[in-house]
Each structure stands twice: as structure tokens, then as C-alpha cells.
## 1
Amino acid sequence: MSRPRRRGRDIHGVLLLDKSLGLSSNDALQKVKRLYNANRAGHTGALDPLATGMLPLCLGEATKFSRFLLDSDKRYRVIARMGQRTDTSDAEGQIISERPVTFTQAQLDEALESFRGETQQIPSMYSALKYQGRKLYEYAREGIEVPRESRSITVYELQFIRWEGEEVELEIHCSKGTYIRTIVDDLGEKLGCGAHVTFLRRLQVATYPFERMVTMDQLNALIAQAEAEGVEPRTLLDPLLLPMDSPCEDFPEVNLLPVVAAYVKQGQPVQASGAPLSGLVRMTEGEERKFIGVAEIDDQGRVAPKRLVVEYPE
């Protein structure tokens, strides 16, 4: 007889994990899911094992709204090793060329300026984008190069931090879909010496506060503390979670009367006073402003539900 499936918790919210070096995003997700004993969990865009920093992990109903973080801006700190180009554009790849570093500060400044604003970027072969159903890095590992279309990206801010020897350090605030490794590789080619990423840290996703990030070591320490104090781990872990609607907190709010919200919960579009003319909105219900989901204003000006929260018993 098979053993009954162990039931986890219906816990909902977003944890801002400070991912450590060498840990894959999926491994980090599974570890956090086990620590919280959560039934459902998902991340909001992977960080390479080489990268550290902010990785928002969505638990429970928050997973329905994680895609809005995929579309958000990001901020990174990166160190580029000039003079060496690798096949993966980072330190985990094989060196494919070495050239002397002969550029001047003026040439570096001019090259950096070319990346600011809206530009076109061809994604690296070592990315998770798909071509004919397979991820690009799967082709790359087999030595196969496939065509990739350039994509429009925006670099809102590119701050020069330092240049010491063969290292250039930058801080980059960019739009979704921007590959920092590709920026560094392209920078190296513009300067005629090649370059690759040796350090990459994601400082921010959307407007999430970096002070709320926690490491895996801190989570494990809280588990140990809970055991020592004889309390449930959730007592110490759950307060770390941000609200499930935090991925869409910047959307305009439409507050609905309970009688109107009842129709929305059945998937029906409704008219609502104070709603914007178009776009996505965050729906709340009643005087308590309880979050019930995300809607889109349809062509008739109605609030049409797109993602709804399932109400779980307490």
C-alpha cells in the first residue's frame, strides 16, 4: 500500500531570498518550499548559479501574480574581467580569446554611453530562451548555434563604479529581458579586448526593498531558534513574507463593494466607479480592502477579472 501524500500548508506570500553563490534558482526554491512546508511555490525569473542577490519566491496564491515580476525592472552590480572572452560570457565558460587591455578611460566612457537608453540586444546562446521548443543553452552545450532575433531592451541607468587593472565594475538598472552577460560581452568587443562576467549581484527587483532580503542561513537559523524555543517554525518564518499582492502593488486599485465582488469572483466583468480607462488593476473588496485578484479594463470600460485569489479556510 502506498503511503498517503504528506499535505503541506496553504501559505501565501512573497519571500525575498538573497540567493547565495553556486545555488541554482530551482534548488533555492525547493529548499524554501520545504522550510515553509508550502503546497505551492514558484520563482520570478531565474538567477544563474554564478549570480547572487534578490530572488523573489512566491508561495501559494502569490504564484498567480509572479508573472508581473517577470515584466519588472531589475538592478544589478557586475564586475567584468577585461581582456578575456569566454563562450558563456561569464567565468564558468571556456576562454575563447585573450587580447591586451589597451583602451583609455575616454574610450570606456564612450562605449558605456552606447548601452544607455533603448537598444537592441541579441541574447546569448547560453540563455534559457527557447528555439523550436528547446532552450538555447541546450543547443550551445552540443556546439550548435541557432538564429536569435535581436530584442529591444532599455538601460535606464548605467553607472561606472571603478576600473582597476583588468576589472571594470558597473551598476545597471534595466528593463525586463536584459542579459547583463551580453552587455559585458558586447562591451569587451566594442573595446577590442573581450570581457566576461566574474561577479553578478541582483540588487533589486521592481520596487522591493533590499532590506527585506534574507539568506538561506538566516532561514535555517530561525528554524533552529524555533526548535530551541519550542515553537512552530512558522511563528518565526511567516512574518518574513510580503503580501501576496506585492507583485502587483503598483497597479491602480479598484475597490469593490462585496455584492459587486461576488460577481467578479464568478469570473464576470463588472462596472466600477473610479476605475481607470484601460490597463491592469488590483481589485480589493469592502472596507477592509481585501485583495481578491487582478483585472483588466475591457473595451467596454468594465473590470474584467484575469487572476483571482482562491479563498482558503483559516
Note: The chain has a mean pLDDT of 91.
## 2
Amino acid sequence: MIRPRAVRRHVGVLALLGSLAAACSPLTTFDRLVPKDRGGVRVAKDLAYGDAPRQRLDVYAPREACGRSRPVVVFFYGGSWNSGTRAGYAFVGRALAARGFVTVVPDYRLVPDVHYPAFVEDGAAAVRWAISHADAYCGDGGSVVLMGHSAGAYIAAMLAVDPRWLGTSRPAVKGLVGLAGPYDFAPFDVAASRAAFGQSPDPAATQPVTWAGAGDPPALLLYGSDDTVVRPRNSQALAAKLRAGGVAVDERAYAKLGHIGILLALARPFRGRAPVLDDVAGFVQRTVDTDRR
């Protein structure tokens, strides 16, 4: 029997998709409407990893009792470096937690209050927090995978391939998962990238493809074939640079999926569109298991 409330919720979610299709808008309303994975639960909220108001994070973990320590995924959301809030991504945190991962979802400072590299510095601070506090949530601070969508994938990629940001904490990063990320977009020819990076004296140094190479962690780079916001060539360029350095890369394109669709495919009602969650979970587990051997 189909419950009327469930039908209304699903219809509401579908109606909301139209407003999300063109850009990385905050997903708070979507997150409120969409059903969540019961196997994952938020175990900590609004924890500070720095002094700024936006330097806060939430932590999700599997609902089941802890056995051995679990891999840690740090997820950075997108929003053109000028918008977004972790309040819209509980569906991601709980989905990953239900697959067995302690998941950290941080906010970070945004344009116009800051510009590059402030949001990358915030990402690094959040990762260091996750490494040092993982054991409080039955997480393994030495087995961290960085993940992000769109502008968040950029942050994750920079932390994974550019040693300037994590320093001595970098060896804890065992993998990178990028969903529709911009990794090779200089010169800055759109308003969002000009606002975030236009003041940089060295545009090439802001690009993940500049830094990617030998010694970087394995990567899973995912994108939709119909993405017109961040073109697939970004993922293809980063994959090629990593492979040239001998880094293991799993590059996957999903047919008939756009920029927002690849993110929404992590949510329960839309997983039939593409196996994004299965692919991410499999990569994280394989990567961490290989490292633990």
C-alpha cells in the first residue's frame, strides 16, 4: 500500500528538482523532503574546527554498534565557492554512514567574504580536525577519503594533490572521490571563478591539474555525460595527469546525467538514475582495505 504522505513527499521532491537543475543551489529544502537512510545517523552537530562562524561541521556514523574502527569520509559540498550550507547535505552524510563510514560534512568560508585560498585552507583545517577526532566516533583517523561535489570536489582535489595544504597530515588521506569537479578551469572566464580566483597572482597554481602526479592518492572521478555546468573535460584532464604519474584512477561517466543529477543520485529516491553511491562506497572500501593490508 502506498501511503499518501509518501506520495506527497515524493511529488514535492520532484517539483523541487526543477529549481535545482541549473546551478548548485543550497539543498536545504530538498534535504528536508527526501527520505534518509536509517542505517546512518548524525552523531554530532555544529562542532567548531576554527574560530570563524562558518568553520563548523557535522558528523555522521553508522547506527550499528562499533566493531573495528571505520574509514572516514570528509565531504565538501558545492556552490560555486559562494553559497551552500551543510544543513542541506544530511542525505549525503547519512547515506555514506549507512555504508559503514564515519562522515564529516563541514561548512567553509565563502566568496565574497573570502577568496582563494581561504576555502581550501578551511578544508584543510576540517580534514585535520577529522583526523585528530575520528576515534571519538569509532573512526580511523589514518584512513581518510576526501570527497566533494562541484566546487567541493575542487577543494577535495586540491587537498589530495597539493602538498601545501595538509602538510604532515597528508599521509592520512588514502583516496579522492570527485563528483563533477572543476579541476582545470584557468583562465577564469565565468563570474564565479573570477570572483573566487581572479585575485590570484598565479592562476596555474590554483588548479588541481597543475599539482597532480606521482605519489597522490588513488582517485575516483565521476561525472555526468550531460553536464553543461562543469564540463567532463575537467575530470578527464585530472585523470590523465594522475595516470601519467602512475596514480590509480577510476574514471566513470554516467549517461544522461547532469551536474546536479550526479549529486541527487546519492539520495534514496534517485539511486536508480546511476549507481553513484555504490561506486563511491566500493571505491572507499577497496582503497582503505588495500592500505590496511
Note: Residues 1-24 have pLDDT under 50 and may be disordered.
## 3
Amino acid sequence: MEQGTRRARRRRGGRSRAVLAVAAAALGGVLGVAGCDAVGGDASAPSAGPAEKAAPPPSPAPLWDTSPTSVAAVGDSITRGFDACAVLTDCPEVSWATGSSEQVDSLAVRLLGPAGAAERSWNYAVTGARMADLPGQMARAVRREPQLVAVMAGANDACRATTSAMTPVADFRADFEDAMHTLRKALPKAQVYVASVPDLKRLWSQGRTDELGKQVWKLGICPSMLADPDALDAAATERRETVRSRVEDYNKVLEEVCAEDLRCRFDGGAVYEYEFGTAQLSRWDWFHPSIDGQARLAEIAYRTVTAKQP
């Protein structure tokens, strides 16, 4: 009897131990699952608080510097100050781009000061130059490693003996792209200011009543626009409108090619739209800018170059 009782107790003890083992195993499984969730396992770690979040990256430096420290100019007779000081003569000291004249306060002087402009500005424009000449001028300009290149070219492409001799728009584009490529190959970070071509028809309308000016025009100044200045017949009107339309096409090219370059600024047509009056035109040919006209061009350029990023 006592032996049977002991066997019964052993059976009950075995069952108790088995129950405890199963319970422990189940509890361990629950704790294991909870442990995975708490430490990361398949669950996401808690997000960082405001103080732990990474600081935003610094803003990139602007691509356009409104205070370049050197200037080179390329282009034609306007940038050489032709007929501003004396008849049929260059006068680079009154150039809108790099001149030293206090009456003009050129782009270079406004940006660099008189002393800085004297040391770090260069004028490679040539009277009579066309867009086809711009790549060569640009090649000479880049040797100075200017931070800003000022461009005004295109009037002579429209000012030909006849309208049929005007530079084709496709050639004008190719030459300007070539000039920009020449610059970019040598100076990837140089900035470019591009002035629009003036409205040549407006210049005709301002000067056509001056007898001296018309005599100078006969020497060969922009015959496609200025020939037979008193003629108002249909053929003369159509000729002048053809020249004006070509200038507008050139300006569109300048704007489009410039827009493809992150460090190029076009004047938005400001020179084309500027209403040159007799005070802004040479008193010898009533076509090229006077000293006052050069100052107005300098104002437009400076305003464009120093405008804040949009």
C-alpha cells in the first residue's frame, strides 16, 4: 500500500514537472518575440527626435557672380565707340563695355572701379566685325582669363550692301555657338553678358532728316537700311522691314543660344527696345551711339549683370 502511494506521488510529480516545462517554454517564446520587436529584428527602430535629425545640406553657390573681377569685350564698332568722339574714328575710351570716360561710366568701371578697369578690362571688338569674326575675338579674349565676357555683335550681319547679302540666320547661329564653344573650352566658369542687336530701323528714322548724317551714310554705313534714306515707296519700306525682321531673328538666336548656357545672360531685348533719340546718336552719322548713347548701353549691361538670381 505504501509502495503504491509512492508510485502515485511520482506520477503526479512527473506530470507537474512536465506542465512547468511546457509553461516555461511558452513564456520563453513570448519573451523571445517581444525581444525581436523591441530591438529591431523585423521591426523599424524608433525615429530620431528633432535634435538628432541630420542638418540640411548647405545651399549650392550661385552660378552667377554679380561682382566679377575682370571684363573682356568682343564685338563690333559700337563696342569700339566708333563715331562717338570724331567722324569715322574709333574712340574706345568711351566704349560702353570697357571705356574709361567718366561721362560713360562703362560696365567695367561700374564693376571694377576706375583703377580696376584700367588693369583688368580688355577690348577685343573690331569695327566692321560680323558674327563670323566673334570666335577669333573670343580666342584672343580667353587668353586674359576674364571672369566676364561682354558681347555685342550682329549689326554688321544685317548691315550689308543688299538684303540678300545679309548673314543667313543659320550661319549666324553656328558662328555664335562656335564663339561660345571657344570660350567654354578654355574657361568653363567664365560668365557672358550678351547684348541684343539695336533696332536699325529706329536709327534710320532718327537720322534721316539730318543732311550731314545722310552724306555720311553714303560712305557705306549700313546700306541695306540707310540707302536712299528719303525713299518711302513700297520697295524701300519692304527693304527696311526685311532688315528689321532679320535683326529680330538674330536676337532670337542670341537669346536661345545664351539660354543653353548656365553662365550666360541675355539682356532680354533691352538694347533692341531702347528708344535711341538724337541725344544718344553720333552727331556725325546719326547711327552709331554718341557718348550719351554709350552711357545708356553701359546702364543696360550693368543692370543685367548685377541682377539677382531669379
Note: The chain is about 45% helix and 5% strand.
## 4
Amino acid sequence: MTSRRRKFAAVLGVTALGAVALTGCSSGSDRDADRIDVGVLVITMFDPENAVWLQREQLPTTVEVAGAYKPVRCNNDHLCVAETGQGKANAATTMMAILGSDKFNFDRAYFLTAGIAGTPPDRGTLGSAVWARRVVDFDLGNHLDPAEAPGVPYGFRPVEDYNTAAYDLDTALVDKVYDATREATLADSPEATAERAMYPGQEGRKPSVMKCDTMTGDDFYSGKPLSDTARYIMGLRTKGQGDYCTTQMEDNATATALKAHGYLDRYLSLRTVSNFDQPYPGQSVVDHIDHSTAGFQLGLDNAYAVGRAAADYLLKNPPAK
């Protein structure tokens, strides 16, 4: 896998900010009084995704959580931002640590992933912001060499449900947040326009806010056959209802941790498009996956813009107890 951190570490640096560390107290009543009431927990996965929130928000309280990838940053408006680390193992470990911590009160919290993703060029475009209705796991099952298993479509057999392979998110909540953010102003650039033009059907497209479904896989894949495989798996796991339009590396793990703590119905996945999941005609998959896409900065900027608009809406409309 090509690490997003290695490819883009130089793009954004995290601004050093002053912070107040939160420590636990000895008695149970004191601990309850010191718990942070969270209204929205924004979930990012790696440093550049996290940096746009740290640089553009005042988050003066730093909360160290044992077992979490990075400290959680919060403010007095009940907004907190966490960075889980990349991939399903990091995301699950960090989310379970945060959700199990006695430093937070999540009784009236929403949980919002705000990160970047890839898209098939026939569905999305660079800079678009996508609200997921479903999150589906790419990895679980049998992945076979299609040439040696010609009777197995795309070389994939689901085998079993695994309990974590597909999650339907709360439709009413997704629709409300989509409606609250659909008119958000999205960043674009001449460089992204030029990159889109390399793909059939992409010339002239502009980023927009969308609803469809997201695929989670620990591999950062590249190529139309793998994109088609993802679309096929999406269809199998959702009984033909899924619409594959983004690919990322963490959301099934995040959803699993939230379900374990009873919060899945308050989870929203926002993924903004930083890259296409396959090369343009004439480009090799190696060049594609090593290429610094013009959509990366757009994805970061638009994840913050749409994520902040969503957080504003959610903070004003907290969940019922």
C-alpha cells in the first residue's frame, strides 16, 4: 500500500497551538464533573486531515486518552477533533479507546468522519463531498485470482457476513445533514480542472455535495479492474442497493466501534474526493498511485468546509437522549 502520509507529509504541517491538558480526578463525582460534554466528535485519520481543523478552529483543551493514536482536542462549544491513524486497525483501536474513556460524556454526541477518499471517474470528481448512506468492507471474504477462478465473478466470494462487512447508516440523519450542507461552497482549482480533463467524461465537471456509498479497504488500490471489483462487492453486500462512489481505509472500523458502544445511529461519514481510483487512459497504475494528485488539497479544504457546516447544524440540533 502507498501511504497517504508518506506521499503528502510535506503538503501540510500542523501549527503548534497552546493547549491545556485534561487530567482525571480521584473521586467518581469529581470525574463526572470534569467529563467533557461532546456535541460533535470530528474523526480524522492522518495528519493533513487533522491539521485543517487544528489550524482553523480554536481547540484549546487537549485530552490524552490511553490507547488512542493522538490526543483529542476540544473547545467550549462541545466540538472535539480526534485523529485515529490510518487503516482499520488504527481506527478501531483509537475509537474504542476514546469511546471507553471516562474523560468524555457522549450521551448527546454525534460522530462525524471528515476525511479524503478516492472515486471511480464515472461517479464522482475531484473535490466533491460525499455523504455515505452505507459503509462496506472491501477486504472480508475470498479474493481469488480471476484467471484461475473464471467461474467466480471478479474473483470474489463473500463467504459470510462477518457482522462488520456492511453498515446502513441512519437514513434520516444522512438526509438532514446532506440538506444542511448541499449548498456549501466547494474549493476548486485550475490544476484539478486539467487533471479531470485526462479522464473520459470528466472534462467540465465541478465538485458538488453528493449522497452515495463508501468502500473501506486497507489496501490503497489503483486500476479499473479493482474499481469494478469494489462495485461488485458493494452490490453483493447491500443486496443490490449500494452505489459505490468513494473508497477509503477506515469507516467500517469506526462504525464497528460506534456500534459496540451503541452510537451507530449517530454516525456520519463525509468523504471528499482527493483522487480517482484508477489511472487515466495511457497512464500506468504505478504512475497513478505515485502521482501527487491536484485533488488532495481540494479534498482537505472541502472536508473542513462541509464538515464544519455539518458540525454547526448538528450542534444546533442535538440528538434526543
Note: Residues 2 and 220 are 6 Å apart (CA to CA).
